[in-house]
Amino acid sequence: MVLNAATSDTGTTAERGPALVSGGSRGLGLVIARRLAGAGWDVVIAARDERALDAAAEDAAAEGLKLHPLRADVTSETSVAELFERLAGRGPLRLCVNNAGRNYNHQLVRIADSERSELRPHPVDAWERTIGLCLTGVFLVGRHAAAVMLAAGTPGVIVNISSTVRHGSYGQSAYAAAKAGVESLTRTWAVELGEHGIRVVAVAPGVLDGAALRERSAANPRHAAYMERLRRQVPLQRWCDEHDVADAVAFAADNPSLTGTVLEVDGGGLPKRVYD
Prior knowledge:
By secondary structure, the protein is an alpha/beta fold.
């Protein structure tokens, strides 16, 4: 049997070892972390909100799942370095899930009135905030993860969370560019790291049927109506379940032949734009 970073030659979970999930305090990241903990990984969740991290760990513990919270800001090189220093005591890192991210929607230039007398360009600070979190953060965490795996001389897996909008989507300049960059990093790192037994895979969700979507739709009927029109144009006519994405991450971590590829978990893909 082929050995890999996630399973032993007996098929048990004894050698899964330490795993890091960035953005693991809530939403998709927390679902992924809980899925991995249930599969036998020694999971550390990292995020900026210390209270949310502690609450996530406590809730998981009530259900018999162990998550270890560590505060970190993935946009800060110093903070990421400190995170990996604290991780070192857990043993060689075997799995890193680059999940931290957030979408700030902006058109490149928005026409604010029917006469086109007022044009509102995409704010530079919104661009930099999205790229910093969703692309530079992936780079910083992935770089440190690869370094510790190489230094330990052990195989490992890096799973990057991309998005189906990386193909282009209305009002998504920064987020689509960042997620396209995540795919490019995935393919590049897979080529660079493969000879050292380190695999790199991306998972690309579509729209997630999670708390953020439900809360925004409940607060804004116009947004809810738009999202319903969008859902009907998805081939499977359903949103992605966070657990489906978590299952894809766990599959990527366990499959010894997967590297340099993107697992699409998007119901068949999204249209570039939905018209009123």
